[in-house]
Specification:
Blueprint lengths: L8 H9 L20 H4 L2 E6 L7 H11 L6 E5 L4 E6 L2 H9 L3 E3 L2 E7 L11 E9 L8 H8 L4 E6 L10 E9 L8 E4 L5 E4 L1
Antiparallel strand pairs: 1-3, 1-5, 2-3, 4-5, 6-8, 7-8, 9-10
Amino acid sequence: MVEFLAMSAAMDRALMEMSLDDKDEPFEMPDLPDLMSCERNKLSLIGRVLNPSCQPMKHLIRNMPRKWQKEGKVKGVALSDERFQFIFDSKHDLEDVLAKGVHSFNEWSIIVDRWYEHPPDDYLRFMPLWVQIWNIPVNYYTEKAIMKLGDLIGEVKEVVFNPDLHQAQEFVRVKVLFDVSRPLRRSKVINFKNGESEEML
C-alpha cells in the first residue's frame, strides 16, 4: 500500500475538504512499461534493517556505498524506515556486494538480496549466519551431530569440520540460514541420552 503524507496542516485540511470522487474506490494503476522501473531494478539490491531505531535510514543510504567501496557506482533509495534499495551501475559491483555475505550498519546486521519483481513470501526474512558451536561432548564430534545442533539455529548450509584433520579450535563453525523474526540466543542447554546435559552454542 502506498502512503502519502501531507506537507503541512493547511494542506492536510484542504485535502480533507476535497473530494475526487463520490466513491472511495481504489485507483487502478495502468500496467504500462513507461510507468515501471523493472529494467533499472534488475541491477539493484533490496534490503531491510533489523533495528530501525539504531539504524537511521538517511545515514545508511549515505554510508553503505563507502563501506562497500562503491562510491559513485551505486545510488541508494529509502523505501521506508526499514527498507531500502541500492541501484548499481554494473552487474559486477552488485554481485561483488552480494558475495561479501552478511552486512552490518551501526553494529546491527542488515539483510540484502537481489530485487525480484515478484518476491517470495519469506523475502528478506532469512540471512546467512556463521555460528560457533562450543562444548560438544567428545562422543558427539560427528558431522551429523554437529548438523543436528546447527539445525537448532537455522537451516544448515555448511559445516567446517573434517574428522580426518587436526582441529586446533575449541568450537566448530556452522553456516546457517537464520530466521531474523526469531530471537537469537547465545546458548542452549542440550540433554543427552545418558542423563547428562550441556550448555552449548
